[in-house]
Amino acid sequence: MRTFSMGGIHPPENKISAGKAIEQVPLPAQVAILLNQHSGAPAVPVVQRGDRVKTGQLIAEAAGYISANIHSSVTGKVLKLDEVYDASGYRCQAVIIEVEPADEWTEEVVLNSTLKRDCTLSPEEIIQKIKEAGVVGMGGASFPSHVKLSPPPGTKPEVLIVNAAECEPYLTSDHQLMLEKGMEIIVGTKITMMALKVNRAVIAIENNKPDAITLLERLAIPYSQIDVMPLAVHYPQGGEKQLIEAVLGRHVPSGALPVVTGAIVLNVGSIFANYEAVQKNKPVIDRVVCVTGKSVKKPGNYLCRIGTSVQDLIDFAGGMPDSTAKVISGGPMMGKALINTQVPVTKGTSGVLLMDGNEAHRNEVYNCIRCGDCIEACPMGLEPYLLMSLSELSEWEAMEKECIMNCIECGCCSYVCPSNRPLLDHLRVGKFKVGAIIRGRKNQ
Amino acid sequence: MENKLYVSMSPHIHGGDSISRKMWDVIIALIPALLVSLYFFGLGSLLVTSVSIASCVLFEYLIARFLLKQESTLRDGSAILTGLLLAFNLPSNLPLWIVVIGALVAIGMAKMSFGGLGNNIFNPALVGRVFLLISFPQQMTSWPLPKPFNLHYLDAATGATPLSVMKSSRFDRLPDMLDMFIGNTGGSLGEVAAAALILGGLFLLIRKVITWHIPVSILLTVYIFTGILRVANPEVYADPLSHLLTGGLMLGAIFMATDYVTSPMVKKGQVIYGIGIGIITVCIRVFGSYPEGVSFAILMMNGVTPLINAYCKPKRFGEVKKK
């Protein structure tokens, strides 16, 4: 079974919500649609207070190349443009819409769920449609897809890798999407290959999802250019560099774009969004979010509109258990702990994880005993113990020499540390500082 | 907003490994050798071990409490482990007051004065042993001969140890290889039982407390180095297998040199460190004036460890080769 070669861990999988059929969450009373749901510049609003918007209507335009369009996920009246807390705890601009009970979709959206296989568009037209629909990486990083599909001149993509590893514990939304929308994902893969002008695609799935592997293998039989590749369960396999190594055996050179290895990696959720954008003219206005946790009454995979509050989702999943001490957007390894449950769902929200007090509690920190476990666990070949000490001493230049910018913030170091040292917290501080220093140097 | 929520950075889960898990695994791995020692050296072995552990724990508690005014770190089990390892490096008939001094040096000087577990440069148990060896050479180098199932404190009237025999090149007087393997020979109380120590080492490998790099590189270096000498002149130099099975080499290679705090962190560095220990050990044993050199070799390489850490970097992912 293939996997990546350096470091990594295997935390308890805890896929509590696995196999739960996707359920539609009822329309909430109000949605807050953030304008910075993607990496890059926040979108610029094109609606005003008091406007009535239809479902699927453009409400904010991409600002610049690395940015993405944002559409209304509901029909209703724009109450205001206001700042709300996002998952990271920052206050960000959002369009707040009061929801009407019945959807009125924009005309061009095809609403039936009949599979549409054929696509006769040119690569440029496909990318244009994906761009208009505001598709971004749905695995969490939310990088605009149209940028990924237009690699810089001089690089030549050879293979599309569909990231369906879902290596984070607890999360099951991609898994369930594959089980229920398998054919759409295969067609979406084919369309994305056309956009990239590549003739090979690999759908990479960790082998704790054997049903999805079997299903997609069967569905992909007519498409000889699409392979399904099972991978050993190994966190952080969903990391772009780790996944490329696992699938192709090639290392992305430090500081280079992944495409130099010939691979373009897209999350399976984004592939489905590409299908809907190209074949159904449907922008990204909803997504599957799994609500999970050991004390959650009704853990499951829920299809909800972008902008629905996390509280609405939790209520639909049986309410917040009294024992809840931490609410996480995303998985337990890389997710973000929310400061309150009014934070809205974005295009990159893959799950909501409720943790009890005993799980959320951090243990007492002891001295580093230099066991080297963090070095062994680091998938990037760094020395977290050293970087943490340097970070505490504000030795930013030394941190740069020790390759801090290669850190992918996967959290393996903190996970394995027998002294419970908050390694990644300190590495993040250093990465932030060194990043600023490097940018400052470039601007000079 | 009835619930108060914890907010912290990811990761939000921990693997559950702990210092005490690792320390207790090492202690468990030492039990077979301790049992062998109790069998061959009897009461003396028990007394020295108990006093060593008790005084290490006591000194750590007192120093943490009254000198450093820190919270006690006894729970991590490292003081017990230091006490056990110190005892393993002492003759089983050593006067108990000397054992207490050894414990004070190990804990007070080598460990707590640097700031406790994790900050020390040298292996505490070995610093204690070497301090005693230099201060009390008479008592530290007269080992009782093994005498199974005895309940007495054995006399110091002892025969030559295998190492001193090897030093004088009278190989006909070396004990039987099997005796050396199971521990039926003179020596420090925990170092004689090669078989039991290897068993403990296997346990540590399975529990992933240590990796093979340090022990194997030490043992292989000693084997190859003494093998070359043996081939060059079999009259003067002992055979490599006897070198492996005598003295503190097994104990040192498996339990002392693999101490996390004082050994390099990257695998490549660990191999360099192991080779260094092997070469220094053989040099002292064969060319030096002491019959045994494992403790000195490990302490010297402990001192080089920060340098090794600074130069041996792990292989970075996607490293761009500099031209």
Summarize the structure.
Chain A is an alpha/beta fold. Chain A has 14 helices and 17 strands. Chain A has 2 domains: 1-13 and 26-286, NADH-ubiquinone oxidoreductase 51kDa subunit (Rossmann fold); 373-443, no CATH class.
> In the CATH hierarchy, what is the superfamily of the largest domain in chain A?
NADH-ubiquinone oxidoreductase 51kDa subunit
How many DSSP E strands of chain A?
A: 17
Strand order of the largest sheet of chain A: 1-14-13-17-15-16
Label the CATH architecture of the largest domain in chain A.
3-Layer(aba) Sandwich
Q: Which chains have the largest interface? A: A-B, 68 and 40 residues
CATH class of the largest domain in chain A: Alpha Beta
**Domains of chain B (count):** 2
Approximately what portion of the residues of chain B adopt beta-strand conformation?
under 5%
Strand content of chain A: 15-25%
Structural class of chain B: mainly alpha
CATH topology of the largest domain in chain A: Rossmann fold
* Rg over CA atoms of chain A: 21 Å
- Describe the biggest sheet of chain B? none
How many helices of chain B in DSSP terms? 14
Percent of residues in helices of chain A comes to 25-40%
Major sheet details of chain A: 6 strands, mixed
